[in-house]
Structures are given as C-alpha cells and as structure tokens.
Amino acid sequence: MDLDPVFPPELEREIFEHAATLYPNVILNLLVVAQRVFAWVRPMLYRTIMVKPGAPPLAAFMRIIDAMPASSSFFRDSVHNLFVHQTPWLAAELQTILATCPGITNLAMMSTTPAVLPLLASKRLTRLALSLAQLFGSGPGGLLPHLAHPIFAHTTHLGLFDYVQNEAAWGAFARLPALTHLCLHSFVHRAQLRSVLTKCPRLQVLVNMHTNTEPEWGLADICGRLKLGDDPRFVLIALDQSVNAYARDWETGRRGEKDFWFLADAFVEKKRRGEIKPVSRCWICEHDGI
Fold first, then answer.
1. Whether this model's pTM surpasses 0.70
2. At residue 287, does pLDDT exceed 90?
3. Which segments within 10-67 are labelled E, that is strand?
4. How far is CA 187 from the centre of its chain?
C-alpha cells in the first residue's frame, strides 16, 4: 500500500520518525505503510545494536550485513548506538559490526579486546564506556596514559570500568579535549578524585559509582571518607551494577530519557543553586531508576 501524502513531505517524515523514536516496537508496522515511509523509517530499525550471545536480533543483523553489497553505505548512516554485553566469544561479530558501521557515536563495551582498537580509531565516539585494561591490555606504563589515544578525541561522556590504583597520571583526563562528564566505577582514593577535579577545570560532572550492597559500606560512610563535598561537580551514585541493569540505563539514555548522566547533571545543578544539603561533607545522589 502506498497512500497519497496528507501533509507536506518534510512534516510527514518528522511525524513518522518521531513515532518510531518514541515507540520502536511499531517500526515494523510503519515499514508497510508506504514506500516513502519505508525509506524514512527503515534506518531507524538499526539505530541501536545490542551485541549479546543468543539474541535473535543479532543473528538477523549479521545475516543482513552478509547480504549487503560491500559498497553499500546503508549501515554507515543507520547505526549510531552500540552496546556490547560480556561476550568475549563474539569478538568476530563485534569486529564485523564496527567495520561495517563507521557512524557509531555512542558505544558501551562491557567486554572487549585489543583487536577492535584499529576499528575504533576513525570513529567520532562522543559517549564511551569501557575497560582500558581490556582494550589496551595492561602493561608496565599503567592504564591512564592510554587516554592519549585518538579514540577519546571527541568523547564528552566517559565511563571507565577499571579498578585503577597506584597511578601517578590522573591528570591524563585533562588532555581529553571534549571531556565534560566522567564516571569512575568502584572505590577510588579521594586523592585521585581530588586530582581529577583539580586538574580538569572543564569537567562538569565527576561520578563515582558504587554498588550499595554491604551495610557497613553505606553511602554516608563512603561520602565521609571521600571528603569531597566542597566541589559541586562530584556526585556519588549507588546502583545495581549488573550488566543487564547497566544496559537498561544505557538504553534509557539512548532514548533521551533520564539515565544516570541526566540525574547527575540535575543533581549538580541543584547543588549549585544550594538546594541540596551536604551529608558527611560530601554529596549523595541515589539512582532509583534501575
């Protein structure tokens, strides 16, 4: 069926694309409305790819890639977001996707390998979450000097899953030209956090994320030990750090909704306005969304 347009084409396209963004489950239905709608909406079907073992969508996506002509630019313009679960045995699939989809700007890798590093170098990754040790390998020079790599040149929001200690180069974050938001997972010494805040004046938000599961390590206790309440940019967040929970939060942010980055921004803004009172000389933001 190919219906005659009711609205001007640019308005009609905006309506259908907006509907596909808000309700991705209806994209397959929209594909059969009209040929022009098919051309507008089909790329949105592949806007976000989740690399997960045994997932039927991944298997179908790999078959489509294999069927596409080598000269096709379809996936270059279609795929913007990629989430990689803890799937080291899918390294070949990941390399194929990264090679086929150069337009990825939002990337989270719960597991990765140095083999994908050359495929990331040419991408403009604005949002990035990964383990430096997995991507670069651990060596005698430590992890943080790897931040000088070109893959971080455009990154505004960076999340690191590494447990980094005994590092003397925490000022390396200051060399990232676009960085405004940084999330460090698990326990980080307050001197290292203070070093990041001091040496990175362009940084707008520094998140230290914890799993609040042990009563003796409550948030207030952690805040008291960190003693960073004088810098409004610092936010302590507690959440379920399972892969599935992180994936749900990532997908929430991908849709433009309230992920942990959104909540951290709002929390920092409230602190700057004096609407949040300190707890044990630090600040707490509890993430209740996941």
1. yes
2. no
3. 48-51
4. 20
